[in-house]
Design a protein that fits this description.
Chain B: One of its GO terms (biological process) is attachment of GPI anchor to protein. The complex is a heterodimer of chains A (about 425) and B (about 600). Chain A contains ten helices and 15 strands. By secondary structure, chain A is α/β, with parallel strands linked by helices. In chain A, the strands form four sheets. A five-stranded mixed beta sheet of chain A has the order 1-2-4-3-15, covered by helices on one side. The relative contact order of chain A is 0.12. Chain B is elongated. The chains are: A alpha/beta (about 425), B alpha+beta (about 600).
């Protein structure tokens, strides 16, 4: 990763001043746009390009614009410190890399945030499920196809270089949560407290089913429409306040959102009530949860930083780069663990036969891992990630090859009686 | 157990950020905003229960759940499911399946005493699949499909491999829409040894949209369903015409479950039946997702002789249909009509016989068959199949499919088909000999059955000796030979008019009817149990014991001979106690110590 400083870029003063996003878009062709690189533009202190009070503008591609900090002392040192801040925010830090390795190395000081994102895998299945436990009262319809193609698919397309994604959805009827909610007189609504949330998922999961046709990990997003007798239903957090989005997520599993339906007065009610789910509200929450589950979390930015919104895709280029850095490191760690386990296994059990194709996979995995490390050292993120992916594929293929088990269950002590009786 | 982390505040912040973007999109009229876009494919669910009292006094209950999905699975790459279960939909899309039929059966349908079945299944597990013609490697797809199905249904279908899979050429034509019928796209396999139990019923029930919480599926309780003489559950997936013009294709999933309750074990000898007696449950409501939910009770014997059979509560309507060449009357209970539950909250259909039943004549079915093994010893044997055509004046052809495992070596030159004492030559024979450990025998014949006759088909075989690792853990139980399949278009006495498939009850639209003068029947014979010459598996143990004993005895005695030394021992005079004891012994007259 490198940063270049074309200091003192001048803009023509005769034109109307650019706004920051337009400047960002205009500067885009100037950059090399290489994966993993960051470009920081330093503009004079008095430039009107950035609004008042904003010291740094972080764009949605791989660039940032910062004001030259004024003040006495070494200007270059001040600029360098600010640039360091920007790099910490936009690219990886030591903490984020160690967090990626948290599965391999026991570390207690890292928080629960490190266990939230899914482990690096070659593909993911995303399933949206609508749970309707009371089809007699609610006739729920959701336009999930349009919602997925409009909101989720652009995000997944942006992440296409990281892994393969497949999205599907289903509607499950008579699927109840494992916990019966408490009635709260004060708000005359039903409450699911934070303590009971872990017990909600297990009974539902039996009905969700995993994909029959692929081995990729599954992210489940459930939309629960509570029964008529349990409406409205709110989720309470640890402090007792109702959660604004009425949703929660479980690390490395997915998210659940409760969608309350307005019921008209009982005498006017005609069962079942037709409910058309407001997909915008639902997709907001699910997309936010999806970002969290992939580990694309917001780094707390210092003041004076202005962040440009990622737009349709939901993900900025530098966030994608950050994800790729951590994924590459995680992949290399996985490869080394797998191959080490295989070697230890061979030491312990002498019976396993390694065929030639398995051996070539092992060699290929080692070579790819070494390539990945070299590329990482020189800062070529794209080729490093590809090499690490190939290394993972080869090492998994070598480790899980079925031919390793052929002669495994023929232990030595069973061979002796037969051999003895034959020799005599 | 899952743990839940709670950076809800962060989610909220994220959500507001995303909301701004999404709101913008909505304003700009992003794709699929509101209205305009075509709705998702429509799907519908119909459920039905048919109760038919059998001539022998038992009662058969057939459940059918049919989900129809108006979508072209293969072309659109659809992956959004509502009533059609996701697991099966994904399977169809990935393996390019055109038709799939899987059945798990326990027991045997006794055609002679019970009459012609609507849909019979062979004992054990049966799977036959038609693939699309765009599949490149059918065998690989077949293997992966059977493995995945064994996971979905908790059945050991992974034992299906090339030694029990065949490619029939004439039987098992597609039951749904088909434009290409290259028989290389068909695979058929039977596992006669497979047992059906609750573990297979539970995933089957999970595929139903209403699960077992509402509608007719409430009656499906495992402890009653397996206490029966015959239990068969099946899944049928096929493409059908969406409407009369047949311009587009819909997918149909039928889940059927047939059970036959035994008079003596359940009814305690009395032949009065009720839903509660059979299933220990009654029906309280229809499935809210079903567009049709009906119970049919066969009351044909009521109209033949008045007041023989009484059904309570009185049915709201009566349906007449000609099924399998017979005019039958059915009492209909429509669970979706509000009148049905006016009197009581739950529906318990009861059948009472007014008169003793031995006055009822048992009409023999037109076509039935029987198969057995004869011969003596463990070297040769003969398989005989008897096919009965009891139609008084019509002759019709029947296709017989036999699959015999490779270890029973058939001799085709000994194949003899006789009818009424004369030889009957089949008009079509397809024979594929077996390859040891790779392929079973396949014999398909088209035989003309004269009216009112018995046809006997015999073929001799020789039993092979297997390698010692190929025997099952209980080899003296025997080895199963899968049932043979008879497919025929049986001419019917009555002319049947072709009814619209959507309006007629489900049990009449199982098989596509070509014309009104005959109906399609597929029968299965009994599976055979054949003993193969089995070696004595305790021999290795015996050899080891004997060898080790001989070695030990020889070596031991030899070692003794070589190393034993003799030395003389002085007899000691003994102490005081000994001398005293000797004196007493002399007095008694006993020899001294």
């Amino acid at each position: 990763m490198g940063y270049r400083l074309p200091c003192g870029v001048r803009f023509p003063t005769t034109l109307t001043p650019f706004s920051s996003p337009e400047a960002d878009a205009a500067l885009l062709p100037l950059q090399e746009d290489s994966l993993g690189a960051l470009t920081v533009y330093v503009i004079p202190e008095t430039s009107p390009l950035l609004p008042q009070g904003v010291g740094v503008y972080v764009g949605k591609h791989r660039s940032a614009v910062m004001r030259c900090p004024q003040g006495p002392g070494d200007v270059l040192a001040a600029v360098s410190a600010r640039v360091q801040q920007i790099v910490q925010a936009m690219s990886f830090t030591t903490d984020s890399i160690t967090a990626a390795l948290s599965d391999r190395v026991p570390m207690d000081q890292l928080g629960t945030d490190t266990r939230r994102p899914f482990k690096s895998s070659l593909g993911y299945e995303i399933t949206f499920s609508l749970l309707n436990p009371d089809p007699k009262s609610h006739d729920v319809h959701w336009d999930i196809e349009a919602a997925v193609s409009g909101y989720v698919q652009p995000f997944l397309d942006k992440l296409g270089s990281v892994a393969n994604f497949s999205v599907d959805s289903q509607i499950l009827y008579y699927a109840v949560l494992g916990v019966s909610p408490r009635f709260d007189k004060a708000s005359s609504s039903f409450i699911l407290s934070a303590l009971s949330l872990p017990h909600v998922i297990n009974p539902v999961e039996a009905r969700l089913g995993s994909s029959a046709t692929s081995l990729y990990p599954v992210l489940n997003f459930l939309l629960y429409v509570p029964e008529r007798i349990h409406s409205p239903l709110y989720i309470q957090d640890k402090d007792g306040a109702a959660v604004g989005t009425n949703a929660f997520h479980s690390p490395r599993w997915g998210g659940i959102m409760v969608y309350n339906v307005d019921h008209p007065a009982p005498d006017k009610a005609l069962l079942p009530l037709r409910v058309d789910v407001d997909m915008v509200r639902v997709m907001e929450v699910f997309l936010a949860q999806l970002r969290l589950l992939f580990g694309i979390s917001q780094v707390p930015l210092p003041e004076e930083f202005l962040l440009e919104s990622p737009g349709n895709k939901g993900l900025t280029d530098w966030e994608l780069d950050r994800l790729l850095w951590t994924r590459t490191v995680e992949n290399i760690a996985t490869v080394s663990t797998t191959l080490t386990s295989l070697a230890q296994l061979l030491d312990k059990i002498g019976n396993i036969v390694i065929k030639d194709d398995v051996a070539s996979e092992v060699y290929h995995a080692v070579a790819s891992a070494q390539t990945a490390m070299l590329e990482l050292a020189s800062g070529h993120l794209g080729s490093a990630f590809q090499a690490s992916k190939e290394a993972v594929i080869s090492s998994e293929r070598a480790f899980f090859d079925p031919s390793l088990l052929h002669l495994l269950y023929f232990p030595d002590d069973q061979k002796f009686p037969a051999r003895d009786s034959l020799s005599v | 157990p899952h743990w839940v982390s709670g950076p809800e505040a962060e989610v909220q912040r994220m959500a507001w950020a995303v909301a701004a973007v999404l709101g913008l999109l909505l304003l700009l009229g992003s794709p699929g905003g509101c209205g305009g876009s075509p709705g998702p494919p429509r799907d519908s669910l119909r459920e039905e229960l048919l109760l038919s009292p059998l001539p022998s006094g038992d009662i058969a209950a057939t459940f059918q759940f049919r989900a129809r999905w108006d979508s072209e699975l293969h072309r659109e790459g659809v992956s959004h499911y509502r009533l059609f279960p996701k697991a099966l939909g994904q399977l169809i899309s990935k393996y390019l399946v055109r038709e799939l039929h899987l059945s798990l059966t326990q027991g045997f349908w006794r055609t002679r005493t019970w009459g012609q079945p609507y849909l019979q299944a062979p004992a054990g597990a049966e799977l036959w699949v038609w693939f699309q013609d765009s599949v490149t490697d059918v065998d690989k797809a077949w293997k992966e499909l059977s493995n995945i199905l064994s996971g979905i249904f908790c059945a050991s279908l992974n034992f299906i491999d090339s030694t029990n899979t065949v490619t029939p050429t004439a039987s098992f034509k597609p039951l749904g829409l088909a434009n290409v019928t290259d028989h290389h796209l068909l695979r058929y396999a039977v596992l006669p040894r497979e047992i059906v139990c609750t573990e297979n019923l539970t995933p089957w029930k999970k595929l139903l949209p209403c699960s077992s919480k509402a509608g007719l599926a409430v009656l499906l309780k495992a402890e009653r369903l397996f206490h029966t003489s015959y239990h068969s559950q099946a899944v049928h997936i096929r493409p059908i015409c969406r409407d009369a013009s047949c311009l587009s294709v819909s997918w149909e999933l039928r889940q059927t479950l047939t059970v036959v309750f035994d008079t003596f074990s359940i009814g305690q000898g009395k032949r009065d039946w009720s839903l509660f007696k059979m299933f220990s449950r009654t029906v309280t409501e229809a499935c809210p997702l079903a567009s049709e939910s009906k119970i049919y009770v066969d009351i044909s014997s009521k109209t033949q002789e008045n007041e023989l059979l009484e059904v309570t509560p009185p049915p709201l309507s009566v349906h007449e249909a000609s099924v399998q060449g017979d005019r039958r009357t059915y009492a209909v209970y429509d669970l979706l009509s509000p009148l049905l539950f006016n009197v009581s909250r739950s529906l318990n259909v009861q059948l009472k016989w007014k008169r003793p039943q031995d006055s009822l004549d048992l009409s023999t079915p037109v076509l039935h068959a029987q198969r057995y093994v004869s011969g003596y010893g463990l070297q040769t044997g003969e398989i005989s199949t008897l096919i009965y055509n009891t139609h008084p004046y019509r002759a019709f052809p029947v296709i017989l499919l036999e699959t015999v495992p490779w270890y029973l070596r058939l001799y085709v030159h000994t194949l003899v088909i006789t009818t009424k004492g004369k030889e009957n030559k089949p008009s079509y024979i397809h024979y594929q000999p077996a390859q040891d450990r790779r392929r079973p025998h396949l014999l398909e014949m088209l035989i003309q059955l004269p009216a009112n006759s018995v046809t006997k088909i015999t073929i001799q075989f020789e039993r092979a000796l297997l390698k010692w690792t190929e025997y099952t853990p209980d080899p003296n139980h025997g080895f199963y030979v899968s049932p043979s399949v008879l497919s025929a278009l049986v001419p019917s006495v009555l002319a049947m008019k072709a009814e619209d498939a959507e309006k007629s009850p489900l049990f009449t639209s199982l098989f596509p009817s070509a014309d009104g003068s005959s109906y399609f029947v597929r029968l299965y014979t009994e599976p055979l149990l054949v003993n193969l010459p089995t070696p004595d598996f305790s021999m290795p143990y015996n050899v080891i014991c004997l060898t080790c004993t001989v070695v030990a005895v020889c070596y031991g005695s030899f070692y003794n001979l070589l190393t034993r030394t003799f030395h003389v021992e002085e007899p000691s005079r003994g102490g005081l106690a000994k001398r005293l004891a000797n004196i007493i012994r002399k007095v008694r007259g006993v020899p001294p110590l």
